[in-house]
Design goal:
The chain is about 25% helix and about 25% strand. It has two domains: about 55 residues, GMP Synthetase, Chain A, domain 3 (2-Layer Sandwich), CATH 3.30.300; about 90 residues, GMP Synthetase, Chain A, domain 3, CATH 3.30.300. The protein has a three-stranded antiparallel sheet, with no helix packed on it. A three-stranded mixed sheet has the order 5-6-8, covered by helices on one side. A two-stranded antiparallel ribbon has the order 4-7. Helix 1 crosses helix 2. By secondary structure, it is an alpha+beta fold.
Length: about 160
Amino acid sequence: MADHTARVRWEISDGEDFRANRYSRAHNWSFDGGLSVPGSAAPGYLPAELIDESAVDPEEALLASAASCHMLYFLAYAAKAGFTIASYEDNPEGKVEKNDAGDPWVSAIVMRPNAVFTGDKLPSGEEIEQLHHRAHKSCIIANSLTSAMTIEPIIES
């Protein structure tokens, strides 16, 4: 269907000692449209001086990718159903645990999307649930992960 690429680049800085494990984990992600995003290891795994807390870490990127993919399908299906959405927000959470082999992984992702509908045609709570179910089934990222994913939409009346 489509191929995608990205570039991840890191290099040692003056004064750092790679073999002693005393080097910055700050790096850069570059994408085809020209955008560059600072990346780093997640806080809590390494001493603060070896990471850039203002950068995106891989775990955050995974959550954002899953939520973004879900949102894009949800918006498309809502528009196709004749609904109008004024805004959409999600604050996904991921749980990192160790698997049976003792390796860390994101075992669960919980999304709590909140779509604000406007206009004459407003969906019922059941229709919103159906749109989220359809979006989840279509989401490329969700279909690529083995993590448990839960969608808990915020439905306001």
